From TrEMBL:
Biological process (GO), any one: DNA recombination
Origin superkingdom: Eukaryota
Protein name, per record: Tyr recombinase domain-containing protein
Molecular function via GO: DNA binding
UniProt KW Cell division keyword: no
Database matches in InterPro entries: DNA_brk_join_enz, Integrase-like_cat_sf, Integrase_recombinase_N, Phage_Integrase-like_Recomb
Highest classification ranks of the organism: Eukaryota, Metazoa, Porifera, Demospongiae, Heteroscleromorpha
UniProt keyword annotations, A-Z: DNA recombination, DNA-binding
SUPFAM superfamilies on file: DNA breaking-rejoining enzymes, lambda integrase-like, N-terminal domain
Amino acid sequence: MVLSSGVWEELRKIKDPLLQQLVLKLKDTIMHSRADSTIEKYTRAFLRWVQWAESRDSFGKLPVNPLHFALYLQHLGSLTQSRSAVEEATNAVSWFSQTAGYTSISQDPFVKMALAGLQRSLSKPRRKKEPVSPVMLKEMVDSLDQDPSLSDVRAVAIAFIAFYGFLRFDEVVKLRCCDVRFLSDHMVIKIVSSKTDQYRQGDEVVIARSGSSLCPVGRLELYCRMARVDSQSAECLFRGIVKSKNGERLRSLGSLSYSRIREILMGKIKALGYDPADYGTHSFRSGGASLAANRGVPDRLFKKHGRWKSESAKDGYIKDSLSARLDVSRKLLF
């Protein structure tokens, strides 16, 4: 719908076959200006604006009328009582406006004032999620039966690589069987694309082997053996599991969704006796990052391991230990 209005109406008038091919390639290029997960989120938010605008007789979808959009933001803020919902709508509609060649709606002075007012009125104290601790990982391993199911082994493997690799859930979802290489003293995980890799250059995460029952390499190896993972396959590493009278086996195709992985790991946390409301999708990444920071891992290596582009983004994941925080004042004492 968006790539058929605005500048695209003009481009459709081009008759030259060579230029028509370039138009098709340009569409693809424009749609790759954001990460896939971001575009999916923006699309949902934009379609909500479209649905609301279409229910009003005199409201057009694109180009966006600033006064109409300000009214929509007021409606959305009153309906959801959510600052993030209002901000997401503004970002989404602005991006789609730009893809059609129109000015970003977020730059309109009136919309800016409406957004700023809603941000202030809808602001709430943020309850930051707790990081997962090494103790919790040990409890996950200890909770496994002597002959554990593939489902349980899968959950523990995901938890360990997310923690020790500082992986986001969307990175875990996209992992393929061929993206993992096991070596004598470590493993290499290839990250084909991620939220911070806007230009899709790819990256690699290396995780050391310890040889203990809490070794992240060993945990993933156990899953791969039990699931009979083909290390050369381009299929997703973590897939659904089929249960039968003969036990469990990995589905041959498909992948686990972001929400399903979250459901699996929050279920594990609840089974250990913790409140899942205290933890979130970034708790494993945050847990590994906090442990590394409190153990004095050099900042440059720390940042590279987590694929952070800025100091502020990295620091947002760290929960300093009480000992580290007390160390500040200890250094001031006479």
